[in-house]
Amino acid sequence: MLVDSHCHIPMLGEDMGVKEVIANAKELGIEHMLCVSVDLETYPEILGLAEQYDCIYASVGVHPNTTMQEEVSQETLVELALNEHVIAIGETGLDYFRSEGDLEWQRERFRIHIRAAKSVDKPLIIHTREVGDDIIRILQEEGAEDVGGVMHCFVEDWEIAQKAMQMNFYISFSGIVTFKNAKEVQAVAKKVPLERMLVETDSPYLTPVPYRGKPNQPGFTRYVAEFIAELRGISFDQVAEQTTTNFFNLFKLNIH
Predict the structure, then answer these.
(1) Which of 13, 22, 60, 152 is an S-S bond match for 80, by CB 3.0 to 4.6 Å?
(2) What is this structure's pTM?
(3) Cα–Cα distance between 174 and 242 in angstroms, integer?
(4) What are the residues whose beta carbons fall under 8 Å from the beta carbon of 241, sequence distance 6 or more?
(5) How far is the C-alpha of 68 from the C-alpha of 109, rounded, in Å?
(6) Which domains does the chain have, with CATH numbers?
């Protein structure tokens, strides 16, 4: 059994219905998936999926690059996160690659998510891209280790990975780890203790080898796990069993 710890099912569009997504995933051994929120507009659809399908879980949050007319409040996040189908806050974090100018608003949004997560005692889903030490600094300043979470789609260096793990965070690898030019990510994937690792697709993006160029889907989590197993010289079953256990431990769920 495998878990896709990060996907965006509504973004798969009309080409693939939810039932087909689930059927394809189960055929490849993926029994559960976490459908992650990037804005409040699409959150009701994500929640609806989690309410309808036992294999889907939901998060609530606003992506660091999402544009809003009125900034999200801690109170709103807390209210939405109290739903039993919501198991995490995010995705949140920092992204200096796609945003320009004074990004203090982005850092403040990040802090609001951390405070909401601590208020409801649910883990964080962290997005980070080209932000240097700011991501760790803010996590430390806000006491994010109290709830922990996952550094999703990890592309940072080993030093960042170590600091994150010291703060009760898991490191999640996406299809990027299968790319030929992803040597640094592969090096980190070899070093991260298996008991601190998750796997994901971030679908519909970042399709892993051997399906690069095609839309990604939760079922392709299998190819990420297979690559990591080969990279580390261990069995696929070891990766599948441990990452699944890690997912259910992190999000305080009963394996079923």
Answers:
(1) 60
(2) 0.96
(3) 16
(4) 1
(5) 11
(6) 2-250 (3.20.20.140)
